[in-house]
Design the sequence.
């Protein structure tokens, strides 16, 4: 497909994904906040609580019924399409970015997978993941939410580790996000919405609602709530190669997910007091610790470089590596058919550009193997070491 068309298709779908995702997550966060802040002292008959709020120059009064009003209103607002379109646009984006360019973005260099096989693994994992999750929730574990939550976390991190064996770091991370997103929208479509429709139908038909469906919906809704922050991190993670490009990328993802869940738990429970107030500073310390432990080790310069300044790679050698391995894409006029313009606006056409961008080169091609994408140009370990030695010795242009 023409790179210009691919870029604009990527932009259009990503924009839709972002808009619908904000709508879904915003509604989810709002209703959790609303539930947690209801005034439950001496509610009116039939109510479980109410809340007064001011926003945008207006004062609002919201009431929550224990079950439903005596008569259903003519207009009842449902919240489902935000979830559906977030997932549809997300899967479309997955296909546009990772499946149409599987060799570039999806497949781990040297894995030997064909694009068709890699895509089959990706799609199959999403389908299998939903059915495994659904089975566990409907099993006896559904009565033990804490144990179920811990098991789900372990299984998702296991999936993240397994993905890193066959996919690139970015490909692995995005498939964890797609797996969680599929579970979340499956919860809405298969459990939460049927429970709500069943409740409304029972009230309209003047019969007792089945309590089992709302109970299942509450469990799934709680899972969706705790899944949200890890998914948001994954959505932005492709900008940070020190996470997905690390040798221990799956462990970094596990740690960030755990910290995100901890933060979400604080916000979910703060209406009951500040007993989890420690969660926020703990998460901050955890992120600082992650930044420290994930920092690239300051590798010793090569033996030749250590012997004296003269052994440091001269810029002509470095420039030759960058010309062969990097400027295929990162140039004002890329020679690669996959790009019409330099990705991210990063260009290595002049010595000055290369020197200024030396820290980025180190982060992307030395500290991690994030670049070249899919190692499509075949950068060798020796060439990465050459770049390392040159940068560590001052990135001189001579």
Sequence:
């Amino acid at each position: 497909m023409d790179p210009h068309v691919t870029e604009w298709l990527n932009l259009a779908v990503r924009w839709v994904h972002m808009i619908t995702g904000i709508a879904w997550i915003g509604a989810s966060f709002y209703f959790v906040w609303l539930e947690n802040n209801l005034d439950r002292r001496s509610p009116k008959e039939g109510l479980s609580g109410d809340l007064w709020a001011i926003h945008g120059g207006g004062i609002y009064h919201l009431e929550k019924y224990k079950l439903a009003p005596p008569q259903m209103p003519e207009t009842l607002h449902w919240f489902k399409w935000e979830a559906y379109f977030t997932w549809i646009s997300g899967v479309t984006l997955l296909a546009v970015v990772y499946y149409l360019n599987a060799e570039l973005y999806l497949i781990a260099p040297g894995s030997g997978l064909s694009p068709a096989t890699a895509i089959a693994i990706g799609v199959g994992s999403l389908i299998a993941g939903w059915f495994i999750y659904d089975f566990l929730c409907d099993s006896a574990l559904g009565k033990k939410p804490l144990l179920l939550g811990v098991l789900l976390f372990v299984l998702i991190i296991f999936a993240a580790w397994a993905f890193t064996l066959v996919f690139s770091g970015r490909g692995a991370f995005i498939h964890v996000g797609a797996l969680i997103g599929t579970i979340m929208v499956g919860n809405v479509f298969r459990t939460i919405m049927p429970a709500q429709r069943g409740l409304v139908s029972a009230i309209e038909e003047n019969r007792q609602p089945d309590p089992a469906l709302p109970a299942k919906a509450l469990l799934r809704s709680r899972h969706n709530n705790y899944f949200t922050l890890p998914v948001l991190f994954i959505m932005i993670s492709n900008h940070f190669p020190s996470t997905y490009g690390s040798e221990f990328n799956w462990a970094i993802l596990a740690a960030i997910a755990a910290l995100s869940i901890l933060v979400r738990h604080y916000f979910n429970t703060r209406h009951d007091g500040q007993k989890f107030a420690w969660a926020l500073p703990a998460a901050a310390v955890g992120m600082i610790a992650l930044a420290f432990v994930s920092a690239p080790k300051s590798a010793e310069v090569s033996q030749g470089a250590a012997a004296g300044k003269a052994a440091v790679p001269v810029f002509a050698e470095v420039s030759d590596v960058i010309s062969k391995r990097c400027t295929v894409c990162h140039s004002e006029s890329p020679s690669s058919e996959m790009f019409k313009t330099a990705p991210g606006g990063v260009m290595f056409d002049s010595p000055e550009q290369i020197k200024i961008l030396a820290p980025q080169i180190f982060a992307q091609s030395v500290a991690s193997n994030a670049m070249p994408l899919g190692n499509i140009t075949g950068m060798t370990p020796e060439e990465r070491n050459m770049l390392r030695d040159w940068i560590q010795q001052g990135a001189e242009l001579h």
